[in-house]
Queue: 2 jobs
Job 1
Amino acid sequence: MLDNINRITQESIIAIKTIKAYCKKEFEIEKFDKANKELKNTSQKTLSVNAFAMPVGQVANYTTMICIVYFGGVLYMQPDHAIMLEDIQTFLTYVMQLLATIMMFSNVLMAINRSTASFYRINEILDARSEIIDKADSNLKLENGNVSFKNVYFKYNNCADEYVLKNINFEIKNGEFIGIIGQTGSAKSTLISLIDRFYDASQGDITISDHDIKDYSLYELREGISISGQSPLLFKGTVLENLRWGNKNASMEEVIKACKIAQCYDFIINQLSDGFNTMISQGGTSVSGGQRQRLCIARALLKNPKILILDDSFSALDKITEAKVKQNLRNDLPNLTKIVISQKISAIKDADKIIVLDNGKITNIGTHEQLLKNDEIYADIDKLQQIGGSEDETK
Ligand SMILES: Nc1ncnc2c1ncn2[C@@H]1O[C@H](COP(=O)(O)OP(=O)(O)OP(=O)(O)O)[C@@H](O)[C@H]1O
Ligand SMILES: [Mg+2]
């Protein structure tokens, strides 16, 4: 119950903006009050039992002592002195020690009862084992950014009936710029999480740099791949510390180069009060969504990866900045394999190859022009987005 109160408090603090925006303050207060009352009632019951048990215990203690002294005295007063005074004294001391131990034991029992719940939860976490088997002693080096998927199937829970990804086949050559497009829930993020081995495919083979990804150590594999996810996070610290999180040994020139490619150099210098030394608040809430996305792209580049994966990382960028970042990636990093996931055709239309995903299946692969001709769904999305785009611009 205490755990429930902690959870509600934590949730309310994290979601404070949403609660205020939806005018749900009263609702949250009610929720907290309810949890608080439940804890109060249970605590009251426990404390009442405790409050009753304590005096009963004390009465039993003192009654025992009085009985010992009384009956000991009666025996001592008998003409033949059935027992001696020091015997009574010794017996009394032993009994007092025994009673004190019993009282203490009951307190310990209560404490054990309380901590058992925590013990089970902590153990659950400590016992959790990753299903990903790391070939930690492998010396295989990830040489280039070739990627291939052959007959790959995947489901999140091995007991689930439905595959989230079905019969995925494609090849990416080192240095190519690949776009992945599909409706929300079509398994785009799931597909790229297999490349970095956050999950292992249920069936099929995935190779990078012409070797099975399971043959690399996880360290080597993940050092060679940079992912900037859908909700990228920054940490509390300076801008520079956050950028160097990608590579702590990066020189200032490398940092500036990565920032220029990701189009964040100008705003760091001109808009942030202290440039690279500006403090960023926890979660990166002190910079705008678009600034956070660009900083995260720069951080991903500083890792010097062979493969860069940008999962909806342009969603908060205007079209001009988006185009510049893509152009920089192409021109400055020709040997880097770039995989860009987006629901916007504008973000991927100039890719060397576009993979169209629908409900976990690849429906088509081709360039923008080829897909416009061959893929009805893609052509429809393009038409709709062009209408939406021109409406946005006229507004
Ligand atoms: N951790 C998970 N456990 C179980 N199912 C999941 C998990 N993550 C995603 N899914 C399911 O897998 C399917 C694909 O999800 P995914 O996040 O890959 O879609 P997406 O194409 O990236 O969507 P979006 O464009 O909204 O980001 C969805 O039906 C989703 O419910
Ligand atoms: Mg996604």
Job 2
Amino acid sequence: MGKLAFWAAVVALVYLGMKFMGISQRRGDAAQRRDAAGRDNSESMLQCAHCGVHVPSSEALLSGTRAYCSSAHRDADA
Ligand SMILES: [Zn+2]
């Protein structure tokens, strides 16, 4: 019976440990998402040299010093 209580305690500790790690991991993910969102919000917008639409710098296609919203507009302007 003492052995059973011991193993029950071990299982409970492992379960709690996994649960705690899961929670801290989710918190880390949430913090990472917040960081990513912050970067997105502060991301500079570039204007397409062909149609004038504004696109985030991470999505803009650059050709020299000019930015384009799509490869079609980059090719059309080339
Ligand atoms: Zn365009």
